[in-house]
Specification:
This protein is about 40% helix and about 15% strand. The two termini are about 40 Å apart. The chain has about 500 residues and is an alpha/beta fold. It has 18 helices and 16 strands.
């Protein structure tokens, strides 16, 4: 299986680890080729950009944990693996932004060995009609793949017909057989994820200037909310015919079993709970988690939503090891946030939660999106100024800035297409960190780039710098010079 990670984006993928575990449990051998430490062309290390431009993280040195950039050609190394291993099937797991890179590997596998290939993951699940058109892909897995991939591998091993396996779209003699999806299974039924196939560097996650040996824990799968910029609501929708929600939770005992197994196998320094909204749970489930985690004594990181945070919960989490958390506010204008993003929290609620975090001296990353459909320059300033106010409340806040990208499967993708806000592509091949794909008459691309680069300056620098920051928005020699000076100055105001 191929994991086409972006350069230096080290993070163990739970999906592939779960697939590997399901196959190995049945005696099927698995190898994973991950690409995170290969520099491909002029790729940049986003960790450096987020440290030096966004100031949302601190620089780290992977050499300190003996994880080095691989200067060899990833395709040559993949060729060698193909010839040495001689797989019966090659699989890719892809989101939309990694799909184009992923199919370079299926094309290579087809050309060299003419081996069967399968594509799975979020993008093939939500856009199987696009994925199956790729000549180098024979099979697409729609939905969860643990059982479908296992059944496929067993059929291939004994030469049996695999064309009617549920959840698979199968290409045979120019025709595509589209099988119905398998029923969702209880998460407890899957074996513990297998991370043994990944390279050493993939275990190390940068966190505020430190590299932690980090293992992800799947507490839940999916999300109960309906944010319009996200594909998770569509995963719930495609399973509606079963009368089930894609979003579901593992039992407390299963989570404990996974943590104990991971401690024994990998000796982690940090656990990352991958739940989209960790605190979206009942008081009973929360208290059960707290009691169980008291026995673990390993720091952990979570992500959640504003409306799930209370002072009592935060203190209990800190008592058992909460190290860092991430919260999405996404936009600073309440009406725009409610109407366009379907996020119904108020700015007052957001500020109250930041006060709670300040009282508890808790660090937090705040997620923001700019370049949204129908957004104006004034609306972007609303987001900037809310973040500025939050930083004054709690100087442990770090602000993440993302440019909106209209990925397929999200409600906003359909909104953008129906309003001719961008020219639809079969798939978007990068995340366009500082450039918007949308057509917007409210500001020029140069104005947007100026706002993007000065966002952190507005947030972290005090009032006396505001006039200079406005100058730094301009992409002129004078503006660039001011930007460089102020970007260095930010370091004096953040911990």
């Amino acid at each position: 299986m191929v994991y086409p990670a972006l350069f230096m984006q080290s993070s163990l993928p739970l999906g592939l680890a779960s697939l590997s575990a399901a196959l190995k449990k049945d005696g099927i051998d698995v190898k994973i080729f991950d690409t995170a430490f290969y520099r491909k062309g002029d790729e940049i290390d986003e960790n450096i950009e987020r440290a030096d431009v966004h100031h949302s993280v601190k620089r780290v040195d992977y050499k300190a944990v003996e994880a080095y950039v691989n200067e060899s050609d990833p395709f040559e190394d993949f060729k060698s693996l193909l010839f040495d291993y001689k797989p019966n099937i090659v699989g890719i797991s892809a989101v939309e932004s990694s799909f184009e890179n992923s199919i370079n590997y299926t094309r290579l596998a087809k050309m060299l060995l003419n081996v069967k290939t399968i594509a799975g993951g979020v993008f093939p699940t939500l856009s199987p009609e696009i994925a199956i058109k790729e000549d180098s892909i024979d099979i697409v897995c729609v939905g969860e793949g643990e059982s479908a991939l296992l059944e496929l591998c067993n059929c291939l091993s004994c030469g049996a017909d695999y064309s009617r396996i549920k959840s698979l779209w199968v290409k045979i003699e120019g025709k595509v057989i589209k099988n119905e999806m398998m029923p969702l299974e209880h998460l407890d039924s899957f074996p513990n994820p297998d991370f043994s196939c990944f390279s050493k560097g993939m275990f190390y996650k940068p966190m505020q200037g430190k590299l932690f040996k980090t293992v992800p824990i799947e507490h839940t799968r999916g999300c109960p909310y309906n944010c319009t910029f996200c594909s998770e609501p569509m995963l719930n929708t495609i399973h509606k015919n079963e009368g089930k929600m894609y979003y579901r939770r593992k039992s407390a005992s299963k989570v404990v079993e996974e943590m104990e197994n991971n401690i024994k196998m990998y000796s982690p320094e940090l656990f990352y709970f991958t739940s989209e909204t960790f605190l979206a749970m009942s008081e009973e489930v929360f208290n059960e988690f707290i009691e169980n985690y008291k026995k673990v004594s390993i720091p952990f990181w979570i992500q959640t939503r504003i409306e799930t945070v209370t002072l009592d919960k935060l203190r209990k989490l800190q008592e058992v090891g909460l190290y860092w958390m991430t919260i999405g506010i996404e936009h600073g204008n309440e009406e725009f946030r409610r109407k366009i993003l379907k996020r119904h929290t108020t700015n007052k609620q957001i500020i109250e939660v930041m006060n709670i975090l300040a009282e508890c001296e808790q660090g937090v990353s705040i997620n923001n999106i700019i370049g949204l459909p129908f957004e104006t320059k004034e609306l972007i300033y609303d987001t900037i100024m809310l973040n500025r106010e939050l930083f004054k409340t709690n100087n442990r806040i770090r602000c993440n800035i993302s440019t909106f990208t209209p990925f397929r499967g999200s409600e906003l993708y359909d909104l953008c297409v129906s309003n001719d806000l961008f020219d639809p592509l079969p798939y978007i091949s990068n995340t366009n960190i500082s450039n918007s794909l949308l057509i917007n008459d409210s500001f020029t691309k140069e104005q947007f780039e100026g706002l993007y680069r000065t966002f952190p300056l507005y947030v972290y620098l005090p009032d006396e710098y505001l006039d200079r920051i406005r100058m730094a928005e301009k992409l002129t020699p004078e503006g660039n010079c001011e930007y460089e000076a102020l970007n260095e100055k930010v370091k004096d105001y953040i911990e």
